[in-house]
Amino acid sequence: MKNLRMKAARAGKDWSQEDLAKKVDVSRQTISAIEKGNYNPSVNLCIRICQALDKTLDDLFWPEE
């Protein structure tokens, strides 16, 4: 499942995938794979992404009803 909420939050900060990747210490390809739904990040990575984007786990990773 694509993570469009993460992509939107990243775009809202005017960050590239590379910018977010550097902030959370992963590769740009990892961010791309998460956004495309091809990779399920660890809980620790989810937390780092949420902290960087000023969002909660529910905002970015909890399934929508």
UniProtKB/TrEMBL annotation:
Keywords tagged on the record: DNA-binding
Kindly give the PROSITE patterns that the UniProt entry links to this protein.
HTH_CROC1 (PS50943)
The yes or no answer to whether the keyword Zinc is present is no
Please give the coiled-coil regions recorded for this protein. Answer: none
Q: Which InterPro entries match?
A: Cro/C1-type_HTH, Lambda_DNA-bd_dom_sf
A Pfam entry, by short name = HTH_3
- Stated name of the protein: Transcriptional regulator
Q: Where is the signal peptide?
A: none
Q: Which Gene3D superfamilies does its entry note?
A: lambda repressor-like DNA-binding domains (1.10.260.40)
Which positions fall inside the HTH cro/C1-type domain? Answer: 6-60
The Gene Ontology terms for molecular function here are: DNA binding
User: SMART domains from the xrefs?
Assistant: HTH_XRE
Q: Which CDD domains match?
A: HTH_XRE
